[in-house]
Amino acid sequence: MFRSPRFAVRLATLLLLSPLAAGCGPGQGRVSGRVLFGGKPVPGGLVMFLPADGRASAVSAPIDENGNYLPVTLPVGEVMVSVDNRDFAPLPLPAAPPVPKGLLPEARSKMSAGSTTAEYEAVAAKRAARYVSIPTRFYNAETSNIRFTVKPGEQQYDVNLTN
Questions:
Q1: Close Cβ partners of 18 (under 8 Å, ≥ 6 residues apart)
Q2: What distance in Å separates the CA atoms of residue 81 and residue 89, rounded to the nearest whole number?
Q3: What digits encode the pLDDT tens for the residues 118-136?
Q4: Which long-range CB contacts under 8 A does 93-102 form with residues at least 24 apart?
Q5: pTM metric for this prediction
Q6: Which element (helix H / strand E) includes 116?
Q7: What is the pLDDT of residues 58-89, one digit of tens each?
Q8: Which site among 22, 40, 113, 128 is 20 to 30 Å from 7 CA-CA?
């Protein structure tokens, strides 16, 4: 398959080092910042950057409790931005399972006194504390109407969501 073992080693080395060399080029910028809605931090979700030219893949970063997103490396040029925090939306309480007919009173009380509802409510409350209702158009890069130009090097970009 390969002409020589030396050729195979050189090819493998080239393939392994290519992504590293590509990451160091002048065609990329490292972006960090905050996500704000109405001037206040969005305390959870994902911010996604989609290069407008369509040749590069989308890159996403989690948003922390203070609205900051982790630094991302993006290609230089225009990117479209979306924010999706639906994973933090309040959860509806699950319906209680039906109690079978003819169940003894002791068993009936054990079924209704389960701790799973309290645990579920605690998790739901924690999630809901990090949820801010934003307009649904921000969930998609094509409809958010947020764009910015990435320059080479380190930079800050705050994503301001407005009604």
A1: none
A2: 20
A3: 776 777 777 677 788 999 9
A4: 93/117, 93/120, 93/121, 93/124, 94/120
A5: 0.66
A6: helix 116-129
A7: 999 999 999 999 999 999 999 999 999 998 88
A8: 22
> What residue ranges define each of the domains in the chain, with the CATH number in brackets?
26-85+132-155 (2.60.40.1120), 90-130 (no CATH)
C-alpha to C-alpha distances, 80 to 19, 107, 132, 159, nearest whole angstrom = 24, 57, 21, 11
Phi, psi of 67 (to 5 degrees): 90, 0
Contact 93, 120 (CB under 8 A): yes
In the block, residue with structure tokens 């801010």? 132
**Contact assessment for residue 66 and residue 43, using Cβ atoms and an 8 Å cutoff:** yes
3-class secondary-structure state, position 129 = helix
156 Cβ contact list (under 8 Å, min separation 6): 31, 32, 33
